[in-house]
Design brief:
Shape: globular
Low-confidence stretches: none
Strand content: under 5%
Distance between the termini: 35 Å
Radius of gyration: 12 Å
Largest sheet: none
Helix content: 55-70%
Number of strands: 0
Number of helices: 4
Length: about 70
């Protein structure tokens, strides 16, 4: 069974329950993805989020600027 992003970040202790709750409310209000809501609220750095997604999906991270 695949875990949801919020569960993964909680398990890795990168966010706490209050931050997840606030980001989910932000997500519902603005109709954006959870990761974007977490970054927008300053709860997690975009690079950290990308690394977690990369590791979880087994895909390499690509820096398009390079």
């Amino acid at each position: 069974m695949k875990k949801r992003l919020g569960e993964l970040l909680l398990e890795k202790r990168l966010i706490d329950v209050d931050q997840l709750t606030a980001a989910l409310a932000h997500q519902r209000q603005w109709g954006i993805r959870l990761g974007a809501a977490l970054v927008a609220n300053g709860f997690i750095a975009e690079g950290t989020l990308m690394q977690v997604l990369s590791d979880t999906l087994g895909l390499p991270m690509v820096d398009l600027a390079k």
